[in-house]
Design a protein that fits this description.
By secondary structure, the protein is α+β, with helices and mostly antiparallel strands. The chain folds into two domains: about 1-65; about 85-145. The protein is built from one helix and five strands; from the N terminus they run αβββββ. The protein has one helix at about 5-65; strands spanning about 85-95, 100-105, 110-120, 125-130, 135-145. The chain has a five-stranded antiparallel beta sheet with strand order 1-2-3-4-5, with no helix packed on it. The protein is elongated, with a radius of gyration of 46 Å.
């Protein structure tokens, strides 16, 4: 009986360890199962959110803009014919040395005009242009006067300084 008791105690101890191990395995399986269920639920929620956004975007694109051109609120007169106009303006301000202007005339698809500006170097730039139908913008650029460049110098050095 002396040998049987320690063997029986050892068997009970082993049985207890196996039971605890089985409990842990069951808990691990249960935790793993809950983890998988959570991930599936979470991925389903994300999928539903993405799907909802895509459906809303597709619906918005299919409808087009929710507005159209406004209806005329008055009886706008129809054009009386091809466009015709003539204008000119100029600025001459001696204190600031500003001198520029513009003139243009249009009759249907033919436009002609010119503009000028006083340049900082003292010259006057004149641009004459025409547009006839689909010919595009044709410009003739001319300059009047001689460019004047002031002497660039820094003057004399202050007393006690010298440039080497």
């Amino acid at each position: 009986m002396g040998v049987l008791l320690p063997t029986l105690a050892m068997c009970l101890k082993k049985l207890k360890e196996v039971k605890e191990s089985a409990d842990l395995t069951c808990k691990a399986k249960h935790t793993f199962k809950r983890s998988i269920e959570y991930e599936l639920q979470h991925s389903n929620i994300v999928f539903l959110q993405v799907f909802t956004v895509l459906v809303l975007v597709a619906a918005a694109v299919a409808q087009g803009p929710p507005y159209g051109a406004p209806a005329p609120s008055y009886g706008a007169p129809a054009p009386a014919g091809p466009p015709r106009y003539d204008f000119n303006w100029k600025v001459q301000d001696q204190p600031s040395a500003n001198d520029y202007g513009h003139q243009e005339a249009r009759d249907g698809y033919d436009t002609q005009g010119s503009y000028y500006v006083q340049l900082p170097d003292g010259r006057r730039q004149l641009v004459s242009y025409t547009v006839s139908g689909d010919s595009g913008y044709l410009a003739d650029v001319q300059y009047e006067g001689e460019a004047q460049y002031p002497q660039q110098g820094y003057g004399q050095a202050p007393a006690g300084y010298s440039y080497n």
